[in-house]
Amino acid sequence: MKRLITLNVNGRQHEVAIEPRQSLLQVLREELHYTGTKEGCSEGECGACTVILDGQTVDSCLIFGLEAAGREVMTIEGLGADDALHPVQQAFVDHGGAQCGFCTPGMILAAKALLEQNPNPTDEEIRWGISGNLCRCTGYVKIVEAIKAAAAAMQT
Amino acid sequence: MKNFEYFAPASVSEAVGYLQQYSGAARVLAGGTDLFLRMRHRALMPDVIIDIKRIPELSDLHYNPEHGLYIGAAVTHAGVVADADVQQHYGALAEAASWVGSRQTRNRGTVVGNLCNASPAADTAPALLAYRASVAIAGPNGTREVDLDAFFQGPGQTVLDAAEIVTGLTLPPRQGNQGWGFFRRTRTAIDIALVSSCAVMTSTNGVCDQVSIGLGAVAPTPIRASQAERVLQGQQPTAELVQTAGQTAAAECSPISDVRCSGDYRKSMVEVLTRRCVQSALSMLHLL
Question: In chain B, what are the domain boundaries?
């Protein structure tokens, strides 16, 4: 039996009828069509489904949509704009931080959250900070470089 | 996943009421990082989910020098790691909690929920055992308190009855000079611990007072290495005693071999990690 919930995504209020078993990831992608967030493993291991819920990065594949009722969610679509990318997004573009791009939305949100908590991280701190986000393509080197560059850009 | 009825009670008694009403067919949902997966894999198929996150007192995390530290059942690992009082007075717990899963998991998963899953490898368990934590339980017959070292019964098993819920953990107040050490072996950042050890020690006039050593992933439950503790208790610490404590801890545990590593490796690591934990604690106490 479906339940009606209200959920704020990227600043917009959404009213949606969902089944209890639907994950936040499913609600975002299938009901609300925010397909930027990806399903990588559905095990809470890869971080491709990372969104920011009430200010914290979470794996949306492990959260029931009902748990997010009345809460605020930011997906990758909520970061920056086409003509004004967030510094993290711009750095990924400039430094080649994406190859296939599948991990990228989650990776960028994880990086954004990391830099908000630690504006000047060392390489090691960056690696720990994104350790919940797996990338099968890049080997992480350019991702770390991009995040370092973003940190520098955000400090000026 | 099988569909279910979802309740988000506003009080502990309401939650217990639901557990009683739906006995056996209901599950408590805290962070959901374990429960969601079990439901997805159909290892558990509850008819009813009771979300406890909207019960205000369960989000309580507070410390005072008289009563110690209280961790409500809905407090996340991230909450514990970031708390200034935990960092200052229960450093081993902040360290242990920072190892649980990934940032994303720590932002949702709760310390209490993790303990209720009773994995022998639970990261915070050795630290909570070393801090001599106790578990507050509420049920249809009222409330009770159980020491953490009596809470675990086996892999995945605790002393909780069907209609009982853990409401929080209490850690006794710090007694004077305290040192700690926490070490863990793991494959990568977000993997389950292969073996972990934690020592928390107090001292007076160069002699070890209270010595508590918790071990993880080397027995059917997280355990206290009580014989290793006795090696150091009441003694003036020496390098030799530290060595003996490590060896004793290794002898006390009964690790299995599994996909992650062999029992022999775990036993060897218990000796090494316990020695390092004790060294770390002693160095914080400025002894040795």
Answer: 5-51, 56-171, 178-284
Give the integer Cα–Cα distance in Å for B17 and B19.
Answer: 5
**How many residues does this entry show for chain A?**
156
Give the CATH fold of the B5-51 domain: 3.30.43
Give domain B178-284's CATH architecture: 2-Layer Sandwich (3.30)
pLDDT in tens, chain A (156 residues): 899 999 999 999 999 999 999 999 999 999 999 999 999 999 999 999 999 999 999 999 999 999 999 999 999 999 999 899 999 999 999 999 999 999 999 999 999 999 999 999 999 999 999 999 999 999 999 999 999 999 999 998
Terminus-to-terminus CA distance in chain B, angstroms? 56
**Closest alpha carbon within chain A to B99:** A128
Q: Is the ipTM of this complex over 0.90?
A: yes
Residue numbers in A near B82 (CB within 8 A): none
Residues in chain B: 288
